[in-house]
Amino acid sequence: MGREGAAMTNLTLDAEALYHELLRSMQQLLASYTQAPRLVGVASGGVWLAERLRGDLMLQEEAGTLSSAMHRDDFSRRGLSASGQTVLPFDVNGAHLIVLDDVLYTGRTIRAVLNELFDYGRPASVRLVVLVDRGGRELPIQPDFAAARVALPASQSLALARDAEGHFSFQVQEVTT
Length: 177
Hints:
The protein is built from four helices and seven strands, in the order αβαβαβαββββ. By secondary structure, it is α/β, with parallel strands linked by helices. The chain has helices spanning 15-31, 45-56, 75-78, 108-119; strands at residues 38-42, 64-66, 96-104, 125-133, 145-149, 156-162, 168-174. The protein has a five-stranded parallel beta sheet with strand order 2-1-3-4-5. A two-stranded antiparallel ribbon has the order 6-7.
């Protein structure tokens, strides 16, 4: 699902246009549920998406936040992330959840947040929705929806940014190891 992309040297992605594509897809996805799902954002970009979607979709229920910090397999190298802690203002047991993230890459963050999520209970279903799938998976994790698919070299990272008015943009950065 979503747009297909190719490897690009000078990557230019319109984060606002991709967000609007995500919003349209979420409207369709929500209509397919008999019991309204809960939005849960992965700290931090996924939380920004969940908050904005909640408002644009006029959902009453507060969105949750999932942190990957405690379940990362590279915890000893990364330490605790300053991006936020898990906050789930609802009972996870039996709930239908849509986990939102900004960029899906190796799958390790999603594995970690799923472990964190199951520490809180057993949901009825979990769907993964991302703004951008950049490939490069190290684990067998795939999104149910991606607004765009792009390929970047492993030496670059792609991160969602948000300005003071809440508008999204992307930042491509060189990764130093």
